[in-house]
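Project standup — Tuesday

K.O.: blocked on the structure for the chain from last sprint. Re-posting the sequence here as requested.
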Amino acid sequence: MIVIDASALVKYILCEEGWDRVSNYLKRYRSLYSVDHIVKECSNAIWRHSRLRGLIDRDTALELFRRLIRVIETGVVVVEPEGKYLERALELSLNSGLPIYDALYIAQAERYGELLTSDKQQMRTAGSLGIRVHYIE
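H.V.: unblocked you, prediction finished:
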């Protein structure tokens, strides 16, 4: 099973470069797994696109948020409580220098064996742990 992190899901939600490759994973591997923190990270990316960068208006931001929620509610991405991975994520974070919220995905991917990411540091860290990484630039 594949764990998807926020860097990859944000590409899909915001239709950033590479979003179609993420879409293929969402269709092909239904369901992907993630920690519930992904909703907060993706929501923050939508907010950042709207409020800080001015790339999308408020209504578009709300629609993108609804798209994100549909992905979760329909089981395309199955979210698990981050709490069950926090201790291991802290260990990974302390060892690798990754922020705890990034290490959460790697801790979960240790359980499931694979990680879908667009984050180079997560790719390197996960790969060094023997996790199969699907990297989308």
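K.O.: great, moving the ticket to review. The beta strands are 2-4, 32-35, 77-80, 114-117, 132-135. Residues 2-135 form a domain with the Rossmann fold fold (CATH 3.40.50.1010).
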